[in-house]
Amino acid sequence: MLLLGLWRRAGNRRRAAAVGFAFGLGFFLAGVSWVYVSLHEFGAMPAPLAALATLLFCTYLAAFPAAVGYCFTAAPGGSGVKVVVLFPAAWTLAEWIRGWLFTGFPWLALGYSQVPVSPLAGYAPVLGIYGVTLAAAATAGLIVAAASPWFEKEEPGGAGFSPFRLPPSAFLLALLWLGGWALQHVEWTAREGAPVSISLLQGNVPQDLKWRPERVGPTLASYRRLARSTSSRLIILPETALPLFIGDVPQAYLDELAAHARQNGGDILIGAPERLPNGKYFNSVLSFGASPDQRYRKSHLVPFGEFIPLRPLLGGIVAMLAIPLQDFSRGAPDQRPLRVAGLRVAINVCYEDAFGEEIIRQLPAANVLANVSNVAWFGRSIAPQQHLQISQARALETGRYMLRATNTGTTAVIDQRGRVVKSAPEFTRAIVTHDVPGRSGETPYVRWGNYAVLALCALLVATAFGAARARRTR
Description:
Number of domains: 2
Strand content: 15-25%
């Protein structure tokens, strides 16, 4: 709301863009400060270079709110229409573009601020997280529009303003929030079958020790103890829980885990890098146990962390980072759910669950979502809690449980309404065990993806420009 107020008083496009840039730079420097932690503390990049890289990245991200400010000021039409109609659409479209441009960085979308308890979160199963962004931005615009008469001497019609006569924007605001509240009470999916006991293992292996050769044995032993201590039908280990290519893990070790899973009447999912005979390697999740062996290979890779974009130009810079396995291959985008322990599990690895439009590729076939992550890369920063909230949004969008198995936290079970029903403290060795039901059916978002909210934004932009044209012809 404050940003909108500053834009209304900016006076020209350049000043509005500067205001948007300043807001964005502060917002992202605070919100993704963990990039510095990853680069310097665990990637071994010198502190000045890590700080510069973080600043440049946030500068790029700040360009999006700067562009919104520029467009807001440059667009024709009255202030009221631009605040209520154009601004929400422009902000949402900017976030959507940020979510796919240069492989995408949808982190810190405005909609996440409403997940899971705000009434506006009720729009997530219908329009996805960008729909929640649209509703939150519309809320800001409507509040500014509703409050404007208090700061003006006269109403547009010339009559003095009465605090007892609410403007139309106040009623639209009430309708927007009541609509979200009503949608929260819709049961979009149905329970399918009996609940299945699951255990999520949190090994708490420090990132600076994870890949050291002398730590391989203790890490394998730790996960074996954790796995053997649970009788759940489905046991899930985090991303790259085993710090070896799966082909280099002793076969006796894998056989022991598989036998234990069969004894429980189910399966175990293991995160580990997988290398093919042709030299390609993948960030994979592999299943062993009562069901046929299956695998999921990560498809959406992290730039500079899992692959090197523009290698001839940037390869030398990346070479200074102490990041193992920097050149993963991409898994196929159309992989199907893993059929394990009586469930159909849509696997996603770490950063992949930030992309709701990619998660729904495995739906409605999957009846449970599972995210395996190693957020030890971000230390004791705010990133793990942000990532948890992202997973909560995916559960809301799809109407399914989300199972999060992480190395250092936050390991959690999230229900179909985005609520954390059970979790482990960060930076502890722990097991989270819960009975989880499968869910069947399609939410509107699963059916439409982002097309619905994009169509709505296009309609709002057309409405704003139509109103401006009508105003000029009067």
